[in-house]
Amino acid sequence: MSAARLPTGLYVITDSHLIPTDRLIDCVARAIEGGAVMVQYRDKDHPPAQREHEAATLAGLCQRHGIPLIINDDIELARTVGADGVHLGQGDAAPEQARSRLGDDAIIGISCYNRLENARLASEQGASYVAFGRFFPSASKPGAVFARQDLLVAARREFDLPIVAIGGITPENGAGLVAAGADLLAVIHGVFGQPDIESAARRYATLFKTDPAI
């Protein structure tokens, strides 16, 4: 999928501490069935061979459903498995490096935390989307900096890029972030930490349905 045609909706991120290895593919499949429109594979712990196998299997799953797979912080893994792009944070490779390795159509996401100036730089460097957060207390990243909801309003005014919100987002507090300008809600524990993953994903997906008849 071209970066110019990013979907709007629920963006799920895997967590190797939260999802048992033998359930990874099934859990992501259930999230997709519930309405997830983009998947990020995030695993900083397991051996390279295991990560490659999991990422390749997820790439196939996402391709069958027609949704993008993003790899967290590993350009070469994304290239090897044919993922749609990478997500880069502070201290990771430069967006230009990712673009040169993955091609013009690759999706390059950048964490901008709580700073508009980071998003300006990311835009100048060719980012496909910018991500802000955390907006609420987060079980996955309890020490992450806080971002205010009005940051999304300011970013929406300034940037044409898709905007991702992340950090402690629930179906109850996510609606305000969407109203403020978020195109995608990035969620880990709110989906993969729930007993019914498909139903949990569906609750987030509903936040993006504007047709009152739906």
Would you kindly provide a written description of the structure presented here, covering whatever features stand out?
The model has no long low-confidence stretch (mean pLDDT 94). This protein is α/β, with parallel strands linked by helices and 214 residues long. The two termini are 26 Å apart. It is built from nine helices and eight strands. It has a single domain (7-207), classed as Alpha-Beta Barrel (TIM Barrel).
How does CATH name the architecture? Answer: Alpha-Beta Barrel
How many structural domains in the coordinates?
1
Helix count, per DSSP?
A: 9
Biggest sheet: strands side by side, in what order?
1-2-3-4-5-6-7-8
Rg to the nearest angstrom? Answer: 16 Å
Gap between N and C termini: 26 Å
Major beta sheet, specifics?
Answer: 8 strands, parallel, barrel
The succession of helices and strands, N to C, reads EHEHEHEHEHEHEHEHH
CATH superfamily: Aldolase class I
Globular, elongated, flat, extended or rod-shaped: what is the shape?
A: globular
Question: At the third CATH level, what is the topology name?
Answer: TIM Barrel
Which structural class is indicated by helix and strand composition? alpha/beta
Number of strands: 8
Mean pLDDT: 94
Low-confidence runs: none
CATH class: Alpha Beta
Helix residue percentage: 25-40%
Strand content: 15-25%
